[in-house]
C-alpha cells in the first residue's frame, strides 16, 4: 500500500457497510453485499431490523433533545452517514446541539465531511477510536473539545454492542464510558437479540464471526445489565419498535421476531 493511502478494507466485509446495504445505501462493496445477502438468506427480516433500529435512533435522540434538554451527544459506532444523521435530528430541535461521532471504520473517516455539516450555532466532530478502548474514546473527546464532560452528555450506542462479545468486556466498556460522564447524562442503547428467533440469530452471529467480525446477541436480561445503576425512562427496555412509537416512524405491523432488537434510554443520576 502506498504511504498515506487509506485502506478502505474493500477485500473484506465490514459490519457498517453491511448495515448500509440493509438500509438500501450505496456506500458498500461487492464483498459487503455478498455477506449481507448471506445474512438475508438466513433471516430476511434483517432489513426490517435495520430500519427499526434507525427509526429508534431518530426517536430516542429527538426525545433526549426535546424532552430531556440534552445538548451534547457522544455517538459511538456512528457508521456510514445516512440522512438524516443524528446531528441533523437534534439540531432541528436546538441548533446549538453538539455531536461527537466516534468510529474506526476507514470508510466512515473517508466520508467524514458528510458528518461535519453542523448548524452554525452548534458543532459536530468526527473522532477515530474504538469502543473497546473506552479510555481512548474519552481522551479523544477531551482533546477534541466539541463536548464538555462537565455538562450532561447523551451516550448513544445503537446497534453496536452485539459486536462486542463478552470476552471484550462489553459491560465494563459501558461502565467506564458512563463513569466519565456527569450526573444528568443519558445512555441510549439498542442491541440485537436471539430471544425470538434463536436458530436464525445463531446462524447470523456465526456468519459475522466467520467473516472476521465477532458478534454476540444477548437476551433481555443480558441487555438489561447495561442499564445497571441507571434510571430507565418509560417504557423501559422493550423491543425497539415499541419504544415510544410515533406515526410513520419506522416499519409498522411487524412482529417482535422481525425486530429482534431491544432498545432503551436511561438517566445517570
Describe this structure as you would to a colleague:
- The chain is an alpha/beta fold and 269 residues long.
- The chain has one domain: Rossmann fold (3-Layer(aba) Sandwich), CATH 3.40.50.150.
- It contains eleven helices and eight strands.
- The chain has helices at 15-22, 30-42, 46-66, 86-93, 106-110, 112-115, 134-144, 170-179, 198-210, 220-224, 256-259, and strands at residues 72-76, 98-103, 123-128, 154-158, 186-192, 231-232, 238-239, 261-267.
- Strands 1, 2, 3, 4, 5, 6, 7 and 8 form an eight-stranded mixed β-sheet that branches.
- Helix 4 (86-93) links the parallel strand 1 and strand 2.
- Helix 2 (30-42) runs antiparallel to helix 9, helix 3 runs parallel beside helix 4 and helix 7 (134-144) runs parallel beside helix 8 (170-179).
- The longest helix is centred in the first third of the chain and has 21 residues, at 46-66.
- It starts with 14 loop residues before the first helix and ends with a strand.
- The model is unreliable at 1-8 (pLDDT under 50).
Please name the CATH topology: Rossmann fold
**Rg over CA atoms:** 17 Å
Q: How would you state the average pLDDT, rounded? A: 92
Order of helices and strands: HHHEHEHHEHEHEHHEEHE
Say what oligomer this is.
Answer: single chain
Count of individual beta strands = 8
The CATH C-level class name: Alpha Beta
* Count of separate DSSP helical elements: 11
Helix content class: 25-40%
Bin the strand percentage: 5-15%
Count of structural domains? 1
